[in-house]
Design goal:
114 residues, mainly alpha, elongated
């Protein structure tokens, strides 16, 4: 009984392998057909399609370039405003420091030495 089960198992494996060997070329050709179909759809077929893709990329690049230039200009203006604000604050600080030094030196002059 054990030998009979083993022989049926071997027969099943052999028949499955034989069917796979027979069907493999058919499956392979079908896979190649689908792959060729997918690739041919992705590749432009005419010169006008290639030119249209090129023009699209050029336009996309031009739009991105303009966007970057606008961002650069806005950042440059922001930097200029911050630089002006910093110089104003620095000037105020300098004036405050100068007035503090003047009041401390004048208060030293009025104090009598004992």
């Amino acid at each position: 009984m054990l030998i009979q089960s083993f022989l049926f198992f071997i027969l099943g494996v052999a028949s499955t392998s034989w069917l796979l060997v027979l069907l493999a070329p058919l499956i392979w050709r079908r896979a190649l057909h689908f792959a060729h179909k997918v690739v041919s759809v992705q590749i432009p077929s005419s010169h006008t399609e290639i030119q249209a893709n090129y023009d699209f990329l050029c336009a996309q690049h031009a739009v991105e370039l303009v966007r970057c230039e606008q961002k650069y200009d806005s950042l440059q203006k922001k930097y200029a405003r911050q630089k002006i604000q910093l110089s104003q604050v620095t000037e105020q600080l300098y004036q405050l420091n100068l007035s503090t030094q003047n009041t401390s030196s004048s208060s030293k002059e009025t104090v009598p030495i004992e």
